[in-house]
Each structure stands twice: as structure tokens, then as C-alpha cells.
Amino acid sequence: MRFFSVFDLVVHHARLRGHSETQMYSFFRKRGIKKADLLCTKDTGMIPTDERLLDAILNYLDMSKLELELALGRIPSGYEHAYLQNVKEIAKLLESSKPSTNNDSVPPTVQPYFLTEYGKLFKGDCLKLFKMVPDESVDCIFADPPFNLDKEYDDGVDDSKSYSTYISWCFAWLDECVRVLKPGGSLFIYNIPKWHTYLSNYLNDKLNFWAWIAVDMKFNLPIPNRLYPAHYSLLYYVKGNKPKTFNPQRIPIQTCRHCGGEIKDYGGYKNKMNPNGVNLSDVWTDIYPVRHSNSKNRKYNELPVKLLDRVITMSTNENDVVLDPFGGSGTTYAVCELLKRRWIGFEVGNCEVIKQRLENKEKDIELLKRVYEEKNKLFPDKVKELRRKNGFWLAEDFMENKEHAVAEQITLSL
Ligand SMILES: C[S@@+](CC[C@H](N)C(=O)[O-])C[C@H]1O[C@@H](n2cnc3c(N)ncnc32)[C@H](O)[C@@H]1O
Predict the structure, then answer these.
(1) 352 in contact with ligand 1, CB cutoff 6 A
(2) 278 near 378, Cβ under 8 Å?
(3) How far is the centre of ligand 1, averaged over its atoms, from the C-alpha of 338 (Å)?
(4) Nearest CA to ligand 1 atom 27
(5) Phi, psi (5° rounding) for residue 316?
(6) 391 CA to middle of ligand 1, Å?
(7) What are the residue ranges spanned by the domains of the chain?
(8) CATH domain 114-373 topology
(9) Is 169 in the pocket of ligand 1 (CB under 6 A)?
(10) Does the beta carbon of 157 sit less than 6 angstroms from any atom of ligand 1?
């Protein structure tokens, strides 16, 4: 495992020395370092700037600051040239102490929990289940893992891993995503920005960065001494130079829900606006959380159908294969079924809830219909009515755009 926080390295070292937690903290207390000071190094990748704390840590680890940086997998600034000059020696040293790999390359044979015309759900740990997916066989991956925020999940999920364990775990399933993605395939990861700073950095060496999408987070609570967290991040990576499928998405312009007037002033550009809506940007403010328990398929963490429809229609075509390694309530699979995409799903927890959802599609059909009432339109019908009533302009007022509107209209056939 790689270490990303100094605290995790200290704990690892304590284990190697056979120290209990009490013995570890007592070592620091004797040097005037309180437990709380040491804990400040737990949820950050920073090397402490407090000299007394850093000295005590280096003392405990029996390392110099340079060794500490190397142990954290970093090349300290000022050493780049020296590092480059010595890569051969470093490689030789690493190769000579490489442990023999445990050869479990035979893919497991696992029976699906259930099958549909379009997809298969497997119950189990995604890291094991990924092994049966052939290299370069998937067109799109959508992954919404637990965020390591100590939330309650089904058995088999630990949502309070250490800093280093969580990031290393994400790297392990990301490696599998990279392996199974077809050339030109798209990978989407939904998480909080803090983890995405690491995941994005890791993926930059393997895939092509396409976008960091900020998904506006509604109704969140403020956190003391921090900026109000207002977005989730949706990373979008592509295997190779460009996506093999990119279907542009258009959305309505934002209007006042009381009068229907546009929020942004489009001034002299009104007559040039595409009647199918404006181009989707990398800030998504129109995604609303699944809030009410009676409309949720399980008690937590269900993503809205609108988000999955957007990702899947943007990056795939009918019959393409979509994989989601963290099934949850099965939103990805439900949308794939309705959009006629083939799918592969993994879920370590309750799979019955997903099966029930896919056997009773009425609610998802209704939700998706509502999504399409607003999709690829400059103004949804209800907004049009309101604007007409209040004397605001409509796309139809500008005749030259009419044909365009018909040509680009995208419909949903359910
Ligand atoms: C945030 S939820 C996904 C929600 C989903 N996107 C939806 O819309 O319903 C994450 C899911 O991943 C599952 N999970 C966590 N660790 C897993 C693992 N190692 N393998 C497979 N599933 C896992 C959890 O049980 C949980 O249901």
C-alpha cells in the first residue's frame, strides 16, 4: 500500500515496531506532542510545518525529511535533477526487492444475481468481480463509490477507511476500470473534490482528461471554518486521444420560476439561440437530489435518473456496454435498460432492491419522461406557456431557427 498521510505512515511504523496505540501516543507525549497535534496529520497529505511535531515524527520513524518525502512517494523540490540522474539505480534497487506476484490471474466464475435482456448484476466485491471482465470490452464506466465519510452501508462496506487505505483502494479499482475500458471509451467517477484531487492525478498518467464537472450540490449543510461545500465532482476521462462517442447535450436556459423571464441577459443574441437549448457546460446546476424516502429505492445515496441519462446518452449509443461497479439502488442499470444500453453491475450489499427496481420500471419510466420534457429544448413546454403569458420572447419568434429545431430534436421512445 502507498501512504498518503504522515499519520498513516506513523501508524504503519508503530505496527512494525510492535507498538500499541497507547505506546505510540506515549512516545509523542514524552516529547511534548499531544495526541490532537498528531491527529492533525491524519486527514491531509501535508508534511507538518510545526518543527517540534515534525522532529518528533522523524524521530519516531527514524527518517530524515528527505526519506519521509520519498516514503510518501514524492520527489522533494530541489531534488528533481538528482532523482532523474539516479533512476537506473533506483529501478535496480526496487526490482531487486520486488515481492513475487501472487498469480491469481484465473478469472472467477460467478453466477449473476440476476439477468435481464440488457444486463447482468453480480453480487460481491467489485475488485474480485472485475477480474472476469475481459480487457478493453466496455464502452463506458460510471462509478459512484462510497465517499469514506463514515456513512452507514450494508455489511461488507467500510466507509471509514484510513486516508491511505481509501485512496489505495480507489487506485485498485481505477486500474481495473482502465484495463476493461475500450479504446475511446469513457470513464466517469462521482465523488467529493477532496478525493478527486488524488484520483484525477492518478488517472492523468493513464487516461485522457476530458472534464471535471461540478455538479451543484443542493441543500447541503455548512461546515464550520470551511467554505460551504456546494458541488460534487464528476470526473470524465477518455481512453486514447478522443471519445469514440460524444453525443452533445443541450439544456434549457435558466428562467425565473415565477415569471418565466431568463435569469441571464442574452441581449442581442436571442435570435441566434439554438431552439434545442444551450450547450451543456461543465457546471451542472439542474440536477436535484433524490430526497424523499418514499421516492428512494434504498435509504441512502441514490443518484437521480437525470444525471445518469445525461452521462449515458452523452457517451454511448444503443447496445453499447456500460459498467457500474457500485450498484447501490441500481440507477445506472435502470437508465441503461430504458435507453437500450447493455450493462454490467456489481454490488457487495443488498442486490434484491436492484432486482425489484428493474422488475418494476414504471417509476423510472415516469422519471425519465420528465427528464425528456426538458431535454434539448430552449424552453420546456410549461416555461413556454408562462413566457407567452408574460410577453417574453420564444425561439419560434425567430423564424430562421425553426428548421434547425426540427432537425436536432431528440426523442425518447419508451
Ligand atoms: C454511493 S452508493 C452507489 C449509489 C448508486 N449510484 C445509485 O444511484 O443508487 C455505493 C454502493 O457501492 C457499494 N459498494 C461499496 N463497496 C463495494 C465493493 N467493494 N464492491 C461492490 N460494491 C461496493 C455499496 O454497498 C453501495 O451500495
Answers:
(1) no
(2) yes
(3) 21
(4) 328
(5) -140, 165
(6) 48
(7) 6-96, 114-373
(8) Rossmann fold (3.40.50)
(9) no
(10) yes
* Cα–Cα distance measured from residue 390 to residue 402, given in angstroms and rounded to the nearest whole number: 22
In angstroms, what is the span from residue 229 Cα to ligand 1's centroid?
22
State in Å: Cα 348 to ligand 1 middle: 7
- Residue 408 is predicted with a pLDDT of 46
Report how far ligand 1's centroid is from the alpha carbon of 324 (Å): 9
SS (H, E, C) the chain: CCCCCHHHHHHHHHHHHCCCHHHHHHHHHHCCCCHHHHHCCCCCCCCCCCHHHHHHHHHHHCCCHHHHHHHCCCCCCCCHHHHHHCHHHHHHHHHHCCCCCCCCCCCCCCCCCEECCCEEEEECCHHHHHHHCCCCCEEEEEECCCCCCCCCCCCCCCCCCCHHHHHHHHHHHHHHHHHHEEEEEEEEEEECHHHHHHHHHHHCCCCEEEEEEEEECCCCCCCCCCCCCCEEEEEEEECCCCCCCCCCCEECCCECCCCCCECCCCHHHHHHCCCCCEECCCEECCCCCCCCHHHCCCCCCCCCHHHHHHHHHHHCCCCCEEEECCCCCCHHHHHHHHHCCEEEEEECCCCHHHHHHHHCCHHHHHHHHHHHHHCCCCCCHHHHHHHHHCCCCCHHHCHHHHHHHHHHCCCCCC
Q: Find out whether the beta carbon of 153 lies less than 6 Å from any atom of ligand 1.
A: yes
Cα of 143 from ligand 1 centre, angstroms: 9
Which segments of the chain have a pLDDT < 70? Answer: 102-107, 292-300, 399-414
- Ligand 1 touching residue 346 (CB < 6 A): yes
Q: Ligand 1, atom 16: nearest CA belongs to which residue?
A: 157
| 123, amino acid identity | K
Give the pLDDT confidence score for residue 35 in this predicted structure. Answer: 97
Strands 321-324 and 342-347: parallel
Model pLDDT for residues 72-131, shown as the tens digit of each residue: 999 999 999 999 999 999 999 999 998 887 656 666 788 999 999 999 999 999 999 999
Q: How far is C-alpha 292 from the geometric centre of its chain's CA atoms?
A: 23
Q: How many angstroms is it from 147 CA to the middle of ligand 1? A: 10
The verdict on the CB of residue 303 being under 6 Å from ligand 1 is yes
